[in-house]
Specification:
Blueprint: H1 5-11, E1 17-29, E2 34-39, E3 47-51, E4 65-74, E5 82-93, H2 109-114, H3 123-145, E6 149-150, E7 156-157, E8 169-170, E9 189-191, H4 196-206, E10 208-216, E11 229-238, H5 242-263, H6 265-280, H7 292-301, E12 305-308, H8 309-318, H9 320-323, H10 340-351, E13 355-361, E14 377-385, E15 389-396, H11 401-410, H12 419-426, E16 432-438, H13 439-447
Parallel strand pairs: 3-5, 6-10, 12-13
Antiparallel strand pairs: 1-2, 1-4, 2-3, 4-5, 7-9, 8-9, 10-11, 11-16, 13-14, 14-15, 15-16
Helix pairs in contact: 3-5, 3-6, 3-13, 5-7
Length: 467
């Protein structure tokens, strides 16, 4: 009977005969006995295959795919609980050791990015992508348990939800043609940067909805923090204020981390050990105070710090980093947008815990955020996490038609283009809010990976469209 390696290890029925399929991660031995480490991707652990068969196994190498039938035994060696004593080994697909790139030795992450089609077979990346799956599954589980409805919002749109203007154009016009009335949709269209505006429409009828899908941004940022294509989780709740939005976001983050801790322990232990080794390469003052597992447990066991934007600015202005010129972007005036170095200071130096910053200046936030009574700030919030910075951005939405129109006029947002959005404020408007959580940022935090390109299967970045 065919079994996955995961089920084989879970069952542990010693002396039973099993058939497994997988890829060879390593091979060692001599003329009398051969040891194969076989993994099928179903779990972190390999199964050790022990062969004393007379059959020549010289064509089976690292990267080869095999079918193995044998009897399960308790392992006498260290590093594994069970091993499979082979009665039969069949080579399914060979891998020439002279040309197969992923040999059993240390490879740089850059090298593995260039071989993204094969990196799923490595220990590091199989763990990363199992955890990415776990996070995605936990997202749906979290919202389903709280009676949210999953909404699919358009990938092709005419609106720039964020107002940043960094969008990819979608067209079937011939090169050089600019008469968009002849285009497929009859007007200029783009790949979406957010499903939020459409999610609001859903929430203002279904009560609670969430979107979970790809979003796109034509931002020419070739850094370890940016992607041109990434996945966003965007819930929206009706009859809600900013406090409700914050509560939902914090609850969701803790739920997801707890789910991964409970169900993917082996992967996390491996990634924790890997992260510790990476930390040891850094100068002492640059190392994290906590290891990966400690950081994850700290998140679910402590309250998040909630502070006003104005208070955050005062803390930064008075900090030693600001006075001694350690900030690349000095903080001198109220109204500046916070940089990653400022977020890092607040989270890792000042509070040593996740920080929620609320009530930002209206000038640095989007048109749809609700104006506060001071007429200077909006009911917005960002959640900052240790080592990664902003993971969540959200707000209470502006439900008052006159205030919304005033903001749109002030920011040159077309009312004709968003007539449908304004209609929701004309007919049965209610207080509501939501947030966006970047999946890749959360995967980075939970796996301890430093580069965002290492937590998405096939990264899309400036000048990079392989695979």
């Amino acid at each position: 009977m065919k079994f996955s390696v995961q089920n084989l290890i879970k069952l542990g029925n010693v002396d039973s005969v099993y058939t497994i399929f997988g890829w060879v991660r390593s091979k060692r031995g001599n003329k009398q006995i051969t040891f194969l480490a076989v993994n099928d991707g179903s779990c972190f652990e390999n199964i050790q295959v022990v062969s004393e068969l007379e059959k020549d196994l010289k064509n089976i190498n690292t990267g080869s795919s095999v079918r193995v039938t044998g009897k399960l035994k308790e392992s006498k060696g260290s590093g594994q609980k069970y091993e499979l004593i082979a009665d039969e080994i069949e080579l399914i697909g060979s891998a020439n050791p002279e040309s197969y790139p992923i040999q059993p030795k240390a490879h740089t992450l850059e090298f593995l990015r260039e071989n993204s089609h094969l990196r799923f077979r490595t220990t590091t990346f199989s763990s990363v992508f199992r955890i990415r799956h776990a996070i995605s599954f936990a997202v749906h589980k979290f919202f389903n348990e709280r009676n949210f409805y999953y909404l699919n919002t358009p990938l092709i749109t005419t609106s720039d939800a964020e107002g940043a203007g960094e969008m990819f154009r979608v067209t079937n016009l011939k090169p050089g043609e600019k008469n968009y009335s002849n285009d497929f949709f009859g007007k200029e269209t783009y790949l979406t940067v957010s499903g939020q505006l459409e999610a609001e429409l859903g929430a203002l009828g279904l009560g609670k909805v969430y979107t979970f899908g790809p979003t796109f941004r034509a931002e020419n940022s070739n850094t370890s923090r940016h992607l041109a294509e990434f996945w966003m989780i965007e819930p929206e709740i009706s009859f809600a204020d900013l406090d409700d939005v914050i509560k939902l976001a914090v609850e969701m983050i803790k739920y997801i981390i707890n789910y991964v801790l409970e169900n993917y322990k082996s992967d996390l232990i491996f990634l924790n050990d890997r992260a510790i080794k990476e930390q040891l390469k850094l100068k002492k003052e640059a190392r994290d105070e906590f290891n990966l597992l400690e950081k994850l447990n700290n998140i679910i066991n402590q309250d998040f710090e909630i502070i006003e934007y104005s208070d955050a600015i005062e803390i930064l202005k008075k900090s030693k980093h600001n006075k001694k010129g350690k900030f690349k972007f000095p903080v001198n005036d109220w109204g500046v947008d916070l940089q990653s170095e400022h977020e890092k200071y607040l989270v890792e130096k000042k509070f040593k815990k996740p920080v929620v910053i609320i009530n930002y200046p209206k000038e640095i936030k989007a048109f749809y955020m609700r104006m506060n009574d001071d007429n200077k700030t909006v009911a917005a919030m960002d959640i900052l996490m240790p080592g990664i910075g902003e993971v969540v951005g959200g707000s209470q939405r502006e439900e008052r038609l006159d205030h919304l129109i005033k903001r749109m006029n002030g920011m040159n947002i077309s009312k004709d283009e968003l007539w449908w959005y304004l209609d929701t404020r004309k007919f049965g408007t209610v207080p509501h809010g939501g947030f966006g959580l970047g999946l890749e940022r959360l995967v980075q935090f939970i796996t301890g990976m430093n580069n965002i390109r290492d937590v998405i299967p096939f990264a899309r970045t400036p000048k990079n469209i392989e695979f």
